[in-house]
Amino acid sequence: MRGNKRAAAIVAIAFGLGATGAARAETFNIAPGPLGQVAAAIGAKAGITVAVTDPELAGRLSPGVRGNFSVRDALERALRGTDAEAVFYDKVTVRIIRARAKPRPVKQKPAIVETPDPPAEPEEIVVTASKQNVLLDNYPGSAKIIDFEPAWLSRNGSKGTAALTETLPTLSSTNLGRGRNKLYVRGISDSSFNGPTQATVGQYWGDARLNYNAPDPDLNLYDLKRVEILAGPQGTLYGAGSLGGVVRLVPNLPDSTETYATASIGASATRFGGTGGDVAAMFNLPLAKGRMALRLVVYGTREPGYIDDPSRNLRDINDSLSFGQRLTFRVEDLAGWTIDLGSVVQNIKTDDGQYTLRGDPPFERSNALAQPFRNDYRLAYITARRPVLGSSELVTTTSLVWHDLISIFDATGSDGATSPRRFEEKNNIALLSNETRLSGGGRRTPWVAGLSGIYSVSRLSRFLGSPEDPAQIAGVRNRQVEFSVFGQASYPIAPSLTLTGGGRVTVSDGAGKLLDDVRGGDEKSSQARVRFAGNAALDWHISPSLSVFLHYQQGFRPGGFAVASGSATQSQQFEADDLSQTELGIRWRDTARDRLSLRAALFAVDWNHVQADLVDSSGLPATANIGSGRIYGLDGEITWRASTVWTLTASGFFNYTNLTGTETEVTNASSITLPNIPQDGVRIGSQWRFELARDVTLTGQASAHYVGQSHLGATPPLNVTQGQYLTSAIGARLDFSRFGISLDVSNIGDARANTFAFGNPFGLSRQNQVTPLRPRTVRLGFDARF
Predict the structure, then answer these.
(1) Distances (CA, A) of 273 to 162, 315, 316, 777
(2) How confident is the model at residue 568 (pLDDT cuts 50, 70, 90)?
(3) Beta strand 260-270 with 275-288: parallel, antiparallel or unpaired?
(4) Each residue's pLDDT tens digit, 441-450
(5) How far apart are CA 564 and CA 582, in angstroms?
(6) pLDDT at 356
(7) 38 versus 596: which is more confidently predicted?
């Protein structure tokens, strides 16, 4: 925004899929403006990463740069008069920092005394999901921020959420298939099945809400800027539906300074299966220099199947196809406002389920009919922001989601007969949401206050009968309205001690009715409820390299209506649930600066009236409150920068969960655990980077990931064990300035295990369903920047 002294409030980063040498000349034509925007334009033109993480520094006026210069010379000219300097970590990574004091010259022989270069300042990362200007090292809670390299996204973006769960052990999901999974953060899991309950993890596209009571949309990650994950209930800042935490996908925004494009293509092959591929492209088009721009992303992926059905003489039946597009239009300095208009469209189609049965040959399953799935997702949003009252910022976002899901299962034998039967479930969801907030206060005393509203309508229709013409059975329509007022502020009560507190008041009202082909049913309204969710935290910086925090948070979900368990004609209401978490965390040293750093947290969770989507004895979905849960755990991450070219990271968690007050009587009640959450998990990853020649760089990654034992459900017959497996992956990429070639191998050892003991609700009582790991898969890719 022209004249905006805050400029890019977090990061101004220009990503390129290739790397250019710092000494190679480029023709720059970048007008004067805020340093954050000028730096981003230089990075975009040169195909490197240029980061300005200090918001005040990003707002300083830069003279720009025009002419034919190397990157170093271009940055030197752009930084004149800004009291800033460029730090080159390597030839493709640059950070702009405040100019450091120059040491006084010492009159002595250089051969005798060597003066070391002053150490680079640690990179300051802002947790934008906090909705305030809070640095990661000052955030009083567990937050994980992943800043993506475009080359990594070109190789892994087509995997969607799976690329994140493979990287972060504390983020997990079910494995029913693309577009039909439930996400969990830090052991807060209600059930393994989909239904009318609100998700435990709030998902966002920038500031736009992605979900309410639906599975993970599983969006392609291509051309993302970063992902931010906040662990634990986020009721104060995000309201209902953030019991486990928040996953925020931050896209790259249109760049009004330069026209450029990126593209990637890959081919993959799965052992015992078929072949697949992925393709993606991004096009950035300035419409008015420095004022208006458009950014378009298109992509498509075909994941090869690996399960055969000998009874129907079919191979690789679980093929999956996804395709979509994202369009963002940005206008800057429109009467002081910056406005982003955007849309996200994605379709996922899977030909059949990806489960097998114990006792059958590996990767084989026989069914009377196919069990396909569709997930059609649409999002439209508008975000407007402007500086007000000096250093404060006003942001308002309105979004509209249309989400349609269709699942088909083989219900043969559910009526005691042998003739084929089909069960079909259609879930049509509409979600309208708005949030308007004002934030300010600077680094020492950040604050935020705002209003939000949600209107959600879901229509769940169900059909059961002959494959040609199944009859409609009871379904349910749910309507939910919420209005909230929230606020949070931090204040330093001592030089090294900061107190944070806040709260959210929510008024919610819901209604529901039964649906079938005979009668629509009368709508039943629940009583309007007023709920409060608060948080309080202390952040203590014991020394420049050591800090601890203590955080208490609350969250909740409103109740709703569902089809009664064991009934095809009756509905029942499930009650609201609420959750609180106490967390004690430690941060030692800086991940970006120090060779060795540590992040860890101990937490305890108290969860009352747990809502859960279940499957009744007949195989039909049902919803109920199943008891109260307790979770105790430890998670952490250690990073070791062994050298300038090699980094090793180890992360993991330990969980103890217990569910009490269940209706099912068991011998040892203390052994009942919350569903689908492993007791432990560990990931070890390694990254390296070597410059082989001028403009030729080799990068690589390797990882090993262990997932501990969990259970499909809390009580019989769902207490089937799953997990306890180890997978590994390796990949490398050769970078040739403007293009790259990559080779990646997943599940190197071709490990076989049960990742998820569910595929068809009508066979759950036999406790013999297995969702195997995808066999060894090899991908060869090519990416380029234009």
Answers:
(1) 19, 8, 6, 9
(2) low
(3) antiparallel
(4) 888 899 999 9
(5) 35
(6) 96
(7) 596
Tokens, residue 457: 């309508």
Q: How far is CA 118 from the centre of its chain?
A: 37
Rounded-to-integer distance, Cα 207 and Cα 399, Å = 9
Pairing of strands 208-209, 224-231: unpaired
- Which helix (H) or strand (E) segment holds residue 664: the answer is none
Residue 552 lies in a domain: yes
Amino acid at 85: E
What does the H/E/C string look like for 139-184?
Answer: CCCCEEEEECCHHHHHHHHHHCHHHHHCCCCCEEECCCCCCCCCEE
| 24-28, 131-135, 660-664, 729-733, range with greatest mean pLDDT | 729-733
Domain extent for 407: 247-785
Residue 253, φ and ψ in degrees, nearest 5: -95, 160
**CATH number for the domain harbouring residue 82:** 3.55.50.30
> Distance between CA atoms of 264 and 644, rounded to whole angstroms?
28
Distances (CA, A) of 52 to 70, 113, 229, 588: 19, 34, 22, 24
Last residue of a domain, one of 98, 123, 152: 98
pLDDT digit string (tens) for 74-98?
888 888 878 888 887 666 678 788 7
The whole-angstrom separation of Cα 616 and Cα 428 is: 22
What would the 3-class secondary structure string for 761-783 be? HHHHHHCCEEEECCCCEEEEEEE
- Residues 387, 5 contacting (CB under 8 angstroms): yes
CATH code for the domain in which residue 638 is found:
2.40.170.20
Domain assignment of residue 526, yes or no? yes
Distance CA 140, CA 391 (A): 23
Residue written as token pair 């299962």 = 409
Instruction: Show the tokens assigned to 220.
Output: 């392609």
Residue 443 dihedral angles phi and psi, to the nearest 5°: -70, -35
Q: State both tokens at 78.
A: 């752009």
Residue 666 gets which letter from DSSP? -
pLDDT tens digit sequence for 689-705: 998 988 899 999 999 99
Contact 236, 488 (CB under 8 A): yes
Cα→Cα distances 639→145, 398, 687, Å: 14, 39, 11
Rounded to whole angstroms, the Cα distance separating 18 from 722 reads 42
CA 568/CA 423 separation, integer angstroms: 13
| Token representation of residue 292 | 């208006």
417: number of Cβ within 10 Å? 9
Lowest pLDDT segment from 18-22, 168-172, 190-194, 318-322 = 18-22
The amino acid present at 571, given as its one-letter code, is: S
pLDDT in tens, 262-307: 999 999 999 999 999 999 999 999 999 889 999 999 999 999 999 9
User: What letters, b where the CB count within 10 A reaches 16 and e where it falls short, cover 159-169?
Assistant: bbbbbbbbbbb
Within-domain flag for 152:
no
Query: Cβ–Cβ contacts within 10 Å for residue 509, how many?
Result: 15
Of the residues 71, 98, 125, the one at which a domain ends = 98
Please report, for residues 67, 191, 607, the alpha-carbon distance to residue 77 in angstroms, rounded to integers and kept in the order given.
Answer: 10, 57, 57
Q: Number of structural domains, the chain?
A: 2
Give CA–CA dist 680/654, Å, rounded.
4
For residue 563 the two structure tokens come to 């089809």
Q: Report if residue 454 sits inside a domain.
A: yes
pLDDT of the residue at 566: 56
Q: What is the pLDDT of residues 349-361, one digit of tens each?
A: 999 999 999 989 9
Beta bridge partners of 637: 599, 651
